[in-house]
Amino acid sequence: MSIKVEKINHEQVVEILSSEESHFLDLKSINIKPAKLTRSISAFANASGGEVYIGIDETKIDGKNQRIWRGFADQEDANAHLQVFQELFPLGQYYSYTFLSCDGCIGLVLQVEINKNREIVKALDRPIPYLRLGAQNLPQDTEEKLARLKLDKGIDSFETSTVKADMEVITNSLPILNFMLRVIPSAEPEQWLKKQQLIINGKPTVGGVLLFSEEPQALLPKRCGVKVYRYKTADEEGRRENLAFDPITIEGCLYDQIIEAVNKTKNIVEEIPKLESGRLQHIEYPDEVLHEIITNAVLHRDYSILKDVQIRIFDNRVEVESPGRLPGHITIENILKEQFARNGVIVRLINRFPEAPNKDVGEGLNTAFEAMTRLRLKVPVIAEQENSVIVYIRHEPLASIESAIMEYLNDHENITNKIARRIASVDSESTIKAAFNRLREQGLIEIVPGTKTATSAWRKLR
């Protein structure tokens, strides 16, 4: 099988050799046994994905660790290493590879990109899964670690666990009675709840308690509420002395919790003054932004983690932190394109409530991002922490179209209307054309000679 060979320059070689091994990067010698290599492959696939470069030696020169490029003599020499990928990923998914060459450097270095896998991947030399943490491949060799990994990847869900409580906490509650009357008036609560697997062996499940108990927090303390903080600062971290008031705790069944959390956050945000055009104005987001992001944080969090959803409101942003890492094969890069429900039962059933908070299942974050883009506000930023996911929503407009164009031209030779529309989050060709003309009139850019009118490219004036 022929694999693409990409020629790189010496600067790129130096960059690879000087790279620090990390949560997303590993460097290996061609002498590594293929079976042992699978520990790194397993660790990346079970975490957030990453890259492995095979063909980098590490040795001591004058007492200092130095890296040396020493790749495979040819593609066939790497066959044993390539074979392990086919054994671990028989369907050919979740990885890709390229051979790298450089004039003056020895052999071909194999660059492998490993994507996060929705299943648990085990190593071959020692048939257990590994997990990447920092620059280490940690064996998941106890029942407790394996159970945690299954929860993190969404293979198991805490929502199906039973709670030590009588089933009457959900069969005779106000939430279930209101739901049944409005949605399924012909059914009896107990029978319907059993059919939905929300009661198992006479005990309510976590999902059943969250959806239909009047006070889920009494049965699942410290893991199913929402905390709202208001910090009067734009600092990176909120401190106690910056709190405008004591944190607000929002409890109740998930349906009520989402409604109250969204309304409370919206009211607090709209009280924040912002100076604009010499006048103090109140901050406003599109209605769907806070609703969709908070709904997503509540419904898709990991309920096995002893921590509430946290909403932190600063002078210049809102942070929504949801306990638990991204599940399954979901990553920061594909979260707006792919779908994976950690709490599938909760997501499915809350969608049946009147005026369901997740009306468009799977479209929540997309809706929020599109709403911010329409108003030319900076789109939210998603970050994955060790045990949580945070969405940052800033009260900031995008840079002007002209600024976006000039910023792009600082790093690129030229720019077209199509590229400018993308980087400036604008749909209209005529709007971009007008911006190009304004920049030309200011003597900042010119049309690249020889480009056609329909596909004109612009460049900075020297």
TrEMBL record:
Residues 21-138 form the Schlafen AlbA-2 domain. The lineage of its organism: Bacteria, Bacillati, Cyanobacteriota, Cyanophyceae, Nostocales. This is Putative DNA binding domain-containing protein. It comes from the Bacteria. It comes from Nostoc edaphicum CCNP1411. InterPro entries: RecG_C_sf, Schlafen_AlbA_2_dom, Schlafen_AlbA_2_dom_sf.
